[in-house]
C-alpha cells in the first residue's frame, strides 16, 4: 500500500467560475435553512448562523461592510444572551 494522500483545501476564490455552480445548490440549501431559523426565532441555532455568516464573509468580504458585519454578529450574540437571561430557571 502506498502512503495516504492528504486532502488539500481549495479556496472558492481560486476555483474557475464554472466550478462555482457545483457549490451554489448546497449553499442555497444552507442559506434557506438558516433563513428559516431566523424567521422562526430559533435562538438556540444562532451560533450556527453566526459561524455561517463569518465563513461567507471570509470568502466574500465585499458582501457587507466591516461595520455591518460586526453589527450583525454582535446582534446575534446579544439575542442569544437575552434569550438565556430571560429563560425560566
The quaternary organization reads as single chain
Fraction in helix: 55-70%
Distance between the ends: 58 Å
The H/E string reads HHH
Low-confidence stretches at least 5 residues in length (pLDDT < 50)? none
Protein name: TERF1-interacting nuclear factor 2 N-terminal domain-containing protein
InterPro entries: TINF2, TINF2_N
Pfam family, one: TINF2_N
GO molecular function: telomeric DNA binding
Fold and architecture overview:
The protein starts with 16 loop residues before the first helix and ends with a helix. Helix content is 66%, strand content 0%. It has a domain at 44-89. The chain has 89 residues and is mainly α. One of its GO terms (biological process) is regulation of telomere maintenance via telomere lengthening. Residues 35-83 form the TERF1-interacting nuclear factor 2 N-terminal domain.
